[in-house]
Amino acid sequence: MEQSALQLSNQGATSHKEHRLLDGDTK
Question: What are the boundaries of the region Disordered (predicted)?
């Protein structure tokens, strides 16, 4: 269960990162 939560959190962070990169914000 813990691993699943971590995976979901990781996925969310990656998704957010990609969105920022697509938006032109690499900070």
Answer: 1-27
DSSP secondary structure letters along 1-27: -HHHHHHHHHHHHHHHHHHHHHTT---
From residue 2, alpha-carbon distances to 7, 9, 19 in Å are: 9, 11, 26
pTM for this model (two decimals): 0.32
- For 5, the token pair is 């939560």
Mean per-residue pLDDT of the chain: 71
CB 7 within 8 A of CB 1: no
